[in-house]
Amino acid sequence: MGFFDVITGRRKLAGPAPDRLFAMSTAYVTLETGLGITSRGGAAIVFQPLATADFETIVRDMEEVVQATAADSGTTVTNTDDAYGYRWLVLRGKDFEDLVVGINAVSGALETGGYGDRVLCAVFAAAARDLGVDARQLVMVGDDIHADVLGAQRAGMAGVLVRTGKFRPSDLAGIEEEPDHVLDDIGQLPDLLRSRDS
Q: CATH class for domain 16-120?
């Protein structure tokens, strides 16, 4: 598929598979029981807001829904605009699944409203700083070779490409950098992490 095919409408770019986000809940169980890796109790979605009434309505409505559902589980929700013009919706709580569902709800609402391209999935240096760890201690797992994996590797993290979701085999053609690791399924992650620790 060429660029011209996309702009003339002959072919459409493949979108992400949002249901794959829920695979994180399953993988988390394996990570916790198999490796003793636990959540730090936080999740965030970062997006570039637009000054349109439609966009603001979608974001405000989703924030209200996430806050209402999060209150039942004790999860807190904060909304912050940073110095670079990006908005951070941060969820903190003990229930990992609530964090995944909340972030997915916001991402899905932006995607449904036609603003999926406003969501940023790769804010690596800030993540390492906010966690108070060296980036070399972190592993970024994603299905986007450029935004997720190579972005993380450039920030000093290990990058793991998972061939699911929006990944396409053509994504690997002609890239200058290789991902540190490539997995066929998120279920292979625990074995990879065990091998990194040994």
A: alpha beta
Domain range summary for the chain, segments of one domain joined by +: 16-120, 124-188
The architecture in CATH of the region 124-188 reads 3-Layer(aba) Sandwich (3.40)
Closest alpha carbon to 81 in 57, 51, 112, 41: 51
Measuring CA to CA, which residue among 108, 90, 107, 98 is closest to residue 74? 98
Per-residue tokens: 40: 């730090």
Q: Computed from CA positions of residues 129, 82, 115, 60, in that sequence, does the dihedral angle turn out positive or negative?
A: positive
Give the pTM: 0.57
Q: How do residues 9-60 score in pLDDT, each as one tens digit? A: 444 444 445 555 556 666 677 677 777 777 778 777 777 888 888 888 888 8
Query: How far apart are alpha carbons 82 and 136 in whole angstroms?
Result: 25
Rounded to an integer, what distance in angstroms lies between the CA atom of residue 5 and that of residue 7?
A: 6
